[in-house]
Structure formats: structure tokens, C-alpha cells
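ok so i was messing around last nite and threw this chain in just to see what happens. nothing serious, just curious
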Amino acid sequence: MRNSFNILFYSKDKNVEISIQEYLKRAAFSFEIFNDETVAYQTFQTGNFNICLIDYIPNDNKAQQLAIMIKSSEKTIPVIFLSNHPNREEISFLFSLHADDIIRKPLDMDILSARINAILNRYQPTKKEDVKVYLFGKFKFELQKQLLTIDEKSIKLTTKEADLLTLFCKNANQLIDRAHALQLIWRNDTYFSARSMDVYITKLRKLLQEDPSIQIINVHGKGYKLLTQPENEY
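result:
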């Protein structure tokens, strides 16, 4: 079954192009691949794309220009840059181009898939965006009140705790990429933000340990999963 999302991919690296093409075919995405930024932008204007992947090489002005033109003409289209171990300055620069995410090369296809789907969900809200309460295990989580309840005992969560738990509940039993969570909630992936997120995840684990069937697990080198079978959500 073909995925309804259509992806524009731009790269001048044949090896990256081949690996991405194989992944997009396996994931059943509709896609078009370009190595000329002018043709890519012209097709973007006439096509119906949901997301743009741009393979970034430092000092490649053409990739930068393509991103600027896309965002200038359609701000709601998410743009993801693929970059080979970007340093702090490059990360800052790419986000100044209104990047929605940056994925480091060499690519891990599980992480690429998780981050594409997370961004598509953000720009293409599903019914879960209307969820006000999550019920999982013995817990009841009320989003607007930031209340976590078990056995009639309620705990008021901090905003960061609530944001993290919401992310976990929306993606229950699925990989949550660590860098994506940092960008989504802390708006950066610095060392200090990463340490802060570790502290908040530890707090959530302590709160959730009252129900042994619920776990937040580490997926080594990738991120986290909330292991649960949601009973209901509304």
C-alpha cells in the first residue's frame, strides 16, 4: 500500500541518494529525487509535497538557497537537513534557515523514519491532537490540567514533565528519537539540555513505577520508548 505522503529529496551525493531511495521505497512513500536545485524548486512549486529532505554539505550554497526558497514560498512545509556531524555553528546556521530538524549522517534509518513521522504528525494533525485524557495501565493523564492520577491520587506535573509525558503517550510503544525530543521540547540539543531531559525522564520513571506494567526504556544510541498498551484516549 502506497503512503499518502509525498517527499521531495535533494542531494548531490550519489551514495546518500541510493540509500535514501531504498528507504523511501521500503517505507512506501511517494517521492521525487533531485540533484539540481532549480529543477527541484520548479517541481516543488507545481507538485504536492508534504516534506522536503535536503542533503547538506558545508559551503553548499545551492542547498541553502533551495531551503530558503521553499520556506519563503510555503512556510508550513517541513524541511529536514541531513548533515555529516554538524558542529554547533552549523546547527545554529541550519536552524536560522528555518529547518524543522537536522539528522546526522551516516543515517540510521530507524531514526530517520521516526523523525520523518514525528514531523509529519506535527504538520498533519491526526485525531490524537484532540485527545484531552490518556488512560494507560492504572494511570489517567489529563493534558490540560497536567494531572497524572493513579488510584485516586493525583500529581500535578511541571510543564516539562507534562510535555514529555504527552510525547510518550502520543507515541506509545514507538521509538522516540532523543535529538527530536530535545528539539521539540527544549528547542535545542545542547549538552545541558540533554542532561536536563535525563533528569525529567528519571522523574517520570519514578512517578510511573507505581504501575509495573508501564516502563520508559532506553533504546541504546537512539532514544526512548514508553512501553504500554493504552486502554483508551479521548
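not much to say yet. The chain is about 40% helix and 25% strand.
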